[in-house]
Amino acid sequence: MLFKEVHLEGIKSGEITLAFRHWQKVSVNSGSLLHTSIGLVKIHNVESIDENDITDEDALNAGFTDRKRLIESLKNNKAGTLFKITVGYHSEDPRIKLREQSELSKQQFEDLTKKLERLDQFSRQGAWTNSVLRAIKENPHFHAIGIADLTGFEKDWLKLNIRKLKNLGLTISHQVGYELSPLGHEYLKKSST
């Protein structure tokens, strides 16, 4: 579930507590935590709603000036059921603290290695984590297409899987491209010795 940056800021400040989406299938559950640019956003409730039941107050709580503007924003994607999602700011993104780690104990290194081996093992592409980490290290801020060209992996597949590396604290995503985090650098350094 994606949010515009202006809505994320509203969620963080507490001014925005609702979101509305058309979905063929519900993509979040009550209690879910979403990683966003402002940190973790919690999904408190998800319920189907008829467009006619949306109120002006709902629109204000979703970051719109009135019901009409909210309804207009939903017209781009009218496929599926309309859902009213109650959201709230939960906390800072724990991956930030993780990725800033510049030291790894032997146990932490072994645990991280096992997680990467598992990603390689269950990938239809075969072993990929090491080559992608090294490509990002050698080409900081390179966009996904460039990393895809270097590694031979398909761009959309690559973007999805770099997110898995980010969740482990190994990479940092930018508006354009990626770079290794301090933890990512430390991991590669230890894996080379």
Helix content: 40-55%
What string gives the helices and strands in order?
Answer: HEEEHHEHHHHHEEH
Q: In angstroms, what is the radius of gyration?
A: 20 Å
Low-pLDDT residue intervals, each spanning 5 or more residues:
none
Number of helices: 9
Number of beta strands: 6
Main sheet specs: 4 strands, antiparallel
SS class: alpha+beta
**How many discrete domains?**
2
How far apart, in Å, are the first and last alpha carbons?
40 Å
- Give the CATH H-level superfamily of the largest domain: Winged helix-like DNA-binding domain superfamily/Winged helix DNA-binding domain
Oligomer: single chain
Overall average residue pLDDT: 92
Given this structure, which CATH class of the largest domain is correct? Mainly Alpha
Give the percentage of residues in beta strands. Answer: 15-25%
> Within the largest sheet, what's the order of strands?
1-4-3-2
Organism: Chryseobacterium paridis
InterPro entries: WH_DNA-bd_sf (IPR036390)
Protein name: ASCH domain-containing protein
Structural notes for this entry:
The strands form 2 sheets. Strands 1-4-3-2 form a 4-stranded antiparallel sheet. It has a two-stranded antiparallel sheet with strand order 5-6. Helix 7 packs across helix 8. The longest helix is centred in the middle third of the chain and has 16 residues. Helix content is 45%, strand content 19%. The protein is elongated. It has 193 residues and is an alpha+beta fold. The model has no long low-confidence stretch (mean pLDDT 92). It has 2 domains: 88 residues, Hypothetical protein (Archaeosine Trna-guanine Transglycosylase, Chain: A, domain 4, Roll); 98 residues, Arc Repressor Mutant, subunit A (Orthogonal Bundle).
